Amino acid sequence: SAIEAAKRLAAYTAVDHHIFPQHRVIGIGSGSTVPYVVERIVAQGQEANRHRVFIPTGFQSKNLIVDAGLVLGDIEQFPNIDVTIDGADEVDDHLNCIKGGGGCQYREKVLAEAATTFVLVADYRKKSLVLGTTWHHGVPLELVPFGYARVLQRLVALGAQPSVTLRMAGAAKAGPVVSDNGNFIVDAIFPEERMRHPTELLKELKGLTGIVEVGLFCGMAKAAYFGNEDGSVTIRK
Ligand code: DER
Questions:
Q1: 108 belongs to the catalytic site
Q2: For the chain, what is the largest distance between any 2 Cα atoms, rounded to a whole number of angstroms?
Q3: Is 99 in the pocket of ligand 1 (CB under 6 A)?
Q4: R_g of the chain, CA atoms, integer Å
Q5: pLDDT tens across 33-77, in order?
Q6: What whole-number distance in Å separates Cα of residue 166 and Cα of residue 148?
Q7: Pairwise CA distance, residues 182 & 185, whole Å
Q8: Catalysed reaction(s) (predicted)?
Q9: Does residue 129 contact residue 191 with C-beta atoms inside 8 Å?
Q10: How far apart are the CA of 87 and the centre of ligand 1, in A?
Q11: Burial (CB count <10 Å: 0-12, 13-18, 19+), residue 182
C-alpha cells in the first residue's frame, strides 16, 4: 500500500542518513514503521552489525531485534545510546510530537533522552502543523494504577475532555491496557489552544502525582523523516 511504502521510505532514508559504522549502541522504537528501520540496518550487513547492540523500547521492539538476529542490549549496561530511531503518531513543524499510540511512550522517552541523536520516522499522515489536528485520539499518558480516578479528575481540570478514561484492551482482554511497566494508559484530548503549546502542557501534566510519562516529546528529535504518497521524502530538521 501507499502507506507501507511511505513508512519504508522514511525508515530507509533515516537509516541511510544516521546509522554509520561507528554507531555501536542503537535504540529501536515501537510501532509499525520501525520494522523497516531494522530491515534497513540488517541490510547494512553482518560486518557492520557484528559490534552493535540494539536497545528495545518494549516487548514488540525487543522481539523485532531478536527476530532480526541482531544483538539485544540492556539500557542498564548501555545507558548512552548513539542513535535512537522511533515512530510517531503526529509531528508538528517544530519537531514536537505525540507518541504513545502503541502505549510504549515511557521507555521510548527514556531511549530518546539517552540518545545523542533521536530521529523520527513516519508516513505522510503524521505530518502536522498543530498537534492534535491529525491525531484525534488524545495525548497518551502512562499512570500508576493506584489513585488513577483522581488523576482523571485532575486531567479534566487541566482541560481534558470529560470523557477521558483508561485505554481499554477491548476484545483482547477484559479491563484496561497494562503497559510494559505494569501501569495504566490514558488518552486525554485537550483543546487546540493547549496543543499549540505542547511544552507547557507537558510540564503541567508531568506535575500531576501518579503520571509516569506523557506522550508529548518536545524539542527532542534532531530530525523527522516522512515518506510521501508520491514517493518523495520530506525531512524536517
Ligand atoms: O507508540 C508510539 O509512539 C509508536 O512509535 C507508534 O505510535 C508509531 O506508530 P506507527 O509507526 O505504527 O505509525
A1: yes
A2: 55
A3: yes
A4: 17
A5: 999 999 999 999 999 999 999 999 999 999 999 999 999 999 999
A6: 9
A7: 10
A8: aldehydo-D-ribose 5-phosphate = D-ribulose 5-phosphate
A9: no
A10: 5
A11: exposed
